Structure formats: C-alpha cells, structure tokens
Fold:
Amino acid sequence: MTTALYIILAVVIVGSALGTIMSRNAVYAALYLALNFMSVALLYLFLGAPFIALVQVTVYAGSIMVLFIFVIMLLGAERLAASENLRGQRFLAIALGVVLLAILGTVFISRAELTGIVTPPTAVDFGSPRQIGTALYTQYWLPVMITSMLLLVATVGAILLTRGEGTSIRDNLKRVDEKEQADQEE
Amino acid sequence: MPLAYYIGLSAVMFILGIMGVLLRRNALVVFMSLELIFNSANLLFITFASYYQLLAGQIMVFFVMTVAAAEVAVGLALMVEIFRTKNTINIDQMSQMKG
Structure:
C-alpha cells in the first residue's frame, strides 16, 4: 500500500516538475509547479510532518503561486519567444545534468549509512503544530526574530522596488485630478 | 520505505530544477525552477527528520520556506521593474548593467 502510494506520488512529482520546466506557457508552468507543491505536501504528511505539509500548501501552493500567476498576468509574459542564443546549450545542459545525477547516485549508493528504512514516526504528536510551535518559540526564538525582520525588510524592499521612479502618491492623485478636470472640460 | 527512494526523488527534482535554470529563457520560469530546487532540499530535510525522529529538520524547513517567500517577493518585484524598463524578461536581454 505505502509503496504504491509512494510510486504514484513520485510519478506526479517528477511529471509536474518536468511540466514546469518544459511548458511553453508560463501560466501552465506555474500550475504544474502548484501541483508539484501539493504532491510534495502529501509526501510530507506521509513522512510524519503534518504541520509542515499544511504550511507548504498555504504558503507555497497558496500565496507564492498566486504571486507568480499575478506577476505573469500583470506583465503579460506568459508567452515569450524561445530563442536559443547559445549553440548546443540544451544538449550540454542535459548531458551535464545526467552526469550530476549519476555522481549523486554513486555517492548515495556508496555511503552505507544511507541504506536505512524510513518509518513514519511512532509518537502521535511528532511534528504537530503544538510541538513545532513550542520548539519555535523557545529553543529557536532568535531565528524566528531574524526571519521576521527579514520578511519585513523584504516587504519594504518589494514595495520600494515596484513604486516606480518619482511617483509618489500625491503625484498620482494630482494626475488623476488633472485627468478628471480635462474630462469634465470636454 | 527505503531512505534511498526519498533521496533519489529529491535528487531528480533538484536536477530538474537546475535544468530549468539552465535551459529556460523566461526569467519567471527560471524563478519557478529555483522553487523546485528549494522544494527538493526541503524534501530531504523532512525525510531525515523522519528518519532520525528529530524535530530540527522540520524547523529548518519552516525557516527555508519563510526565506523563500521573502526571496520570491523581492525577486518578483525586481522582475516587474526590469520589465518596466526593458519591456522583456528574457534573461538573454539582461546583459548590461545600465538599463
């Protein structure tokens, strides 16, 4: 049963990852990526990490993918001409990727301590929100503070970057007023 | 479930992410491939958290997710700004420091 479930999930994960990197339309790539995140979240549930699985669904498959799709639609960048400027880049990339996979495989196979069996944790509350929350706010309080500052800085940075040059809210309001006046005069 | 299955799946996902970064021209798709790479690393963390019955791996994934969210926010803002100045997000066009 578990093996069958794993195989189904693995096929969906690899297939959706392939879809992400191969689909011509960026919107399809984003949707494939959302499918990938969802199936990886199912795998997390399977591995005894229910809280992280649901965070994955809400944060990754929810907000980050919405952000991606929003930006794709905003820029109208779903279809960009696929011009290959570097000769033989595709062949070289695929060949080197296969080589890297082979190296990773041999390293993993040659290490004897990695041949164990993963069993889902026996403790009922392993990875539960209570356990994670307790660990986060006691043992890991400093990283939590640092990441909260990082999120704040990222938010401010994103707003600053997309604000545009020399356009303050007052300027925009003035422009709207002028446009309305011009419309009324017509 | 043997540990190698999860490690193998994570490795395949990582390689696919790298291929996406190397092969695609659309900067947004390159970004999505980066997310794939993050995801494969997270899968490995969760696998070993389950294997060693330690919570630290799951906590680490939590932090990776927050940092990835911050990175996506800033990256997409940069993308919007680049599109505004250059009218394209083809990464071949981003070859000059001065727009």
